């Protein structure tokens, strides 16, 4: 069983390596399953066995750069609108992100890739804006951006699918801005551990702290 598992991992890795090269050279539409299988020296049916479809293979293999601008050069009060505008341009101009979004709902490799993209690119960006709970804030921003993209490009939900760029920026921008600026309050179970308070002065001296009397 161990040998079979290793063989499967090796085959999968070979397919992903070949797919990255082929997608990089020919693009999504130009690359074919047969060409990728030939590069990996396996039967095309093996590609379908491990990844199910060309979309899911592309989502698992392709490299994505969200190409964030230098946020330090932007007005702090306009960061929310700026990020929404940037994401809108990326979604509108890159079919690869749409393929990844569609595939991540049903394919674990694509879902991991989506997670990786936002963890490695969005969270560090938020950390340059604020040191207060950047992971939480990045996660909240992702709910808006991915939810918007899902409704607009996959479900084509009206009226979201027909909103103009200005509509989306004006409606979603303030929410993203709030996620960047508003205080983060979490329940005790999910909040990071707090530093212990130093002991009272009387306790440091070995004295018992005085009890306050409740008013009658």
Quickly describe the structure:
This protein has 216 residues and is mainly alpha-helical. The protein has helices at 2-30, 33-40, 44-51, 54-61, 79-93, 95-104, 108-129, 134-154, 165-181, 201-204.
What does this molecule look like?
This protein is mainly α and 216 residues long. It folds into two domains: 8-61, Arc Repressor Mutant, subunit A (Orthogonal Bundle); 71-181, Tetracycline Repressor, domain 2. Helix content is 66%, strand content 0%. The termini are far apart.
Biggest sheet record: none
Principal-axes shape call = elongated
The helix/strand order is HHHHHHHHHH
Number of strands: 0
Secondary-structure content class: mainly alpha
CATH topology of the largest domain: Tetracycline Repressor, domain 2
| Main CATH class of the largest domain | Mainly Alpha
Instruction: Count helical runs.
Output: 10
What is the helix fraction of residues, given as a range? 55-70%
Uncertain segments: 194-198, 211-216
Count of individual domains:
2
Rg over CA atoms, rounded to whole Å, is 24 Å
What share of residues are in beta strands?
under 5%
Give the termini separation: 75 Å
CATH architectural type of the largest domain: Orthogonal Bundle
Mean pLDDT: 84
Secondary-structure blueprint:
Elements: H1 2-30, H2 33-40, H3 44-51, H4 54-61, H5 79-93, H6 95-104, H7 108-129, H8 134-154, H9 165-181, H10 201-204
Helix pairs in contact: 1-2, 1-4, 2-3, 4-6, 4-7, 5-9, 6-7, 7-8, 8-9
């Amino acid at each position: 069983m161990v040998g079979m598992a290793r063989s499967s991992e090796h085959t999968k890795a070979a397919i992903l390596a070949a797919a990255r090269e082929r997608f990089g050279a020919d693009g999504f539409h130009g690359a074919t399953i047969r060409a990728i299988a030939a590069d990996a020296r396996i039967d095309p049916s093996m590609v379908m066995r491990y990844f199910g479809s060309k979309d899911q293979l592309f989502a698992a293999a392709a490299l994505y750069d969200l190409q964030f601008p230098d946020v330090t050069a932007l007005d702090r009060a306009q960061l929310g609108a700026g990020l929404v505008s940037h994401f809108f341009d990326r979604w509108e101009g890159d079919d690869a992100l749409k393929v990844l979004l569609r595939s991540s709902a049903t394919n674990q490799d694509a879902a991991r890739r989506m997670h990786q993209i936002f963890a490695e690119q969005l969270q560090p960006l938020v950390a340059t804006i604020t040191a207060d709970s950047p992971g939480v804030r990045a996660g909240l921003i992702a709910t808006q951006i991915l939810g918007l993209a899902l409704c607009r490009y996959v479900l084509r939900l009206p009226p979201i699918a027909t909103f103009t760029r200005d509509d989306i920026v004006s409606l979603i921008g303030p929410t993203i801005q709030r996620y960047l600026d508003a205080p983060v309050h979490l329940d005790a179970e999910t909040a990071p551990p707090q530093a212990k308070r130093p002991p009272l002065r009387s306790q440091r001296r070995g004295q018992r702290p005085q009890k306050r009397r409740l008013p009658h």
